[in-house]
Amino acid sequence: KFFYSLSVPGVIPIAFGTNRSDYEAVAPPESFIHVTDFSSHKELAEYLSRLSSNEKEFNSYHEWRRSYELDVPYFRAQCDFCKALNQRKLHGSPKPIHDLNEYWSMGKCFN
């Protein structure tokens, strides 16, 4: 979910659950807000409220997009799968698959 949030333009992920340093090890710099940066939920809510009306500060969380490109193959696969399903709708009804081994075997493409 974290990387999906990063992939959506205009979204700033709010991270929790593991240490900030764990997120920093894999995420672009200054790309997320971590709940441990705040002493309470109220303080976090107040910050988010201020952030929503401060365009310069809000945009600072997206500066990384100028220097980094997010490539998460998992999400690309989801998009490809969705595209294939929608293309099937355009090309008639789907064909039943009786043998999954045969369906997934090399050299066959059902897109």
From TrEMBL:
* Pathway of action: Protein modification; protein glycosylation
Gene3D superfamilies (alphabetical): Glycosyl transferase family 10, C-terminal domain (3.40.50.11660)
Name of one Pfam family that matches: Glyco_transf_10
Q: Which terms are listed as keywords in the entry? A: Glycosyltransferase, Golgi apparatus, Membrane, Transferase, Transmembrane
Topology in the lipid bilayer is annotated as: Single-pass type II membrane protein
Location of the Fucosyltransferase C-terminal domain: 1-101
One function term, GO molecular function aspect: alpha-(1->3)-fucosyltransferase activity
Q: Where found, per UniProt?
A: Golgi apparatus, Golgi stack membrane
Q: Which family, according to UniProt?
A: Belongs to the glycosyltransferase 10 family.
This chain belongs to the protein called: Fucosyltransferase
The species this protein was found in: Caligus rogercresseyi (Sea louse)
The organism's lineage is: Eukaryota, Metazoa, Ecdysozoa, Arthropoda, Crustacea
